[in-house]
Recover the amino acids of this structure.
């Protein structure tokens, strides 16, 4: 059987305002803060994870809390993050809700055969609500500020921007075993759709070819990396060997405690991660109280007092 990714695992972005980030993603977007931890490579920074009611792989958008200036938008970057909802009525609900909250929001329109609604968070993070038709699993959060039928169901599609498809496409299709499905036009760019697993918006990467743009400069309101799903550590071992066999530089396997990961850059510089579905966020705290206290992986637990002293309050 061909080694295959099954969809989007998570997406990690950058905030320079952790308290404001928590307020927006929980109060306005109604997501559940499922893990409050630190960046394992920079413990002075929070790493905040928002997801559905059960912290399901494929539903979490995460943030590094770094005191960075705003992102300079451009190519060689992850340009927009899709968030799935079910049905046109949900999009109407969201346009009204986001407008009332003073959010920068567009009009409901059709794109690539689906109804979508583009908006930005207070730091300019580019987001897109996508009608997924209610397909697949949904795990609403009972304590959300948003009614269950309108809640965000998960991630996808994710849009990246590259100046030239020729270098990126072989990595996606030959190395990562994605399928090139179709193209569409948006804002003067041709966007190429690549599918994983069973396909559908939860398992698509959209590649916009934008040679006219300057290279992006990473910062607050931008995205750090996108992660793709693999079901097990055994499958990740296979991916590690596969990436090595194609002579693509990588991080080697990294134990993140909640999942195990492999990082590498595609030729246009976008950072990819392949992450395991398990063990998940309930490995170190009860499902019913996820995200309420600061969680640290075992190797950082001896430094808890020092780490907590360097973190600013979130509320």
């Amino acid at each position: 059987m061909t080694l295959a990714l099954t969809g989007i695992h998570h997406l990690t972005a950058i905030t320079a305002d952790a308290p404001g980030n928590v307020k927006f993603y929980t109060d306005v977007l109604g997501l559940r803060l499922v893990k409050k931890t630190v960046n394992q490579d920079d413990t002075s920074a929070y790493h905040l994870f928002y997801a559905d009611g059960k912290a399901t792989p494929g539903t979490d958008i995460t943030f590094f809390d770094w005191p960075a200036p705003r992102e300079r938008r451009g190519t060689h970057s992850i340009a927009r993050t899709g968030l799935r909802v079910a049905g046109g009525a949900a999009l109407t609900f969201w346009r009204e809700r986001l407008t009332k909250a003073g959010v920068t929001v567009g009009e409901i329109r059709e794109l690539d055969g689906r109804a979508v609604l583009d908006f930005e968070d207070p730091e300019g993070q580019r987001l897109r609500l996508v009608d997924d038709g209610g397909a697949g699993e949904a795990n609403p959060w009972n304590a959300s500020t948003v009614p269950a039928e309108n809640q965000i169901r998960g991630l996808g599609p994710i849009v990246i921007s590259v100046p030239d498809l020729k270098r990126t496409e072989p990595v996606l299709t030959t190395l990562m075993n994605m399928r090139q499905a179709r193209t569409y036009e948006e804002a003067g760019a041709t966007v190429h759709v690549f599918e994983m697993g069973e396909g559908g918006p939860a398992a698509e990467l959209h590649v916009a070819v934008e040679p006219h743009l300057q290279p992006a400069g990473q910062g607050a309101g931008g995205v750090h990396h996108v992660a793709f799903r693999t079901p097990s550590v055994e499958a990740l071992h296979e991916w590690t060997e596969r990436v090595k066999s194609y002579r693509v530089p990588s991080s080697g396997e990294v134990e993140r405690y909640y999942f195990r990961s492999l990082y590498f850059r595609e030729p246009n510089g976008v950072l990819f991660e392949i992450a395991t579905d398990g063990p998940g966020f309930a490995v170190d705290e009860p499902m019913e109280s996820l995200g309420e206290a600061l969680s640290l992986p075992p190797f950082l637990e001896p430094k808890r007092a020092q780490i907590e002293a360097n973190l600013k309050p979130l509320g």
User: Anything to note?
Assistant: The two ends are 49 Å apart (CA to CA).
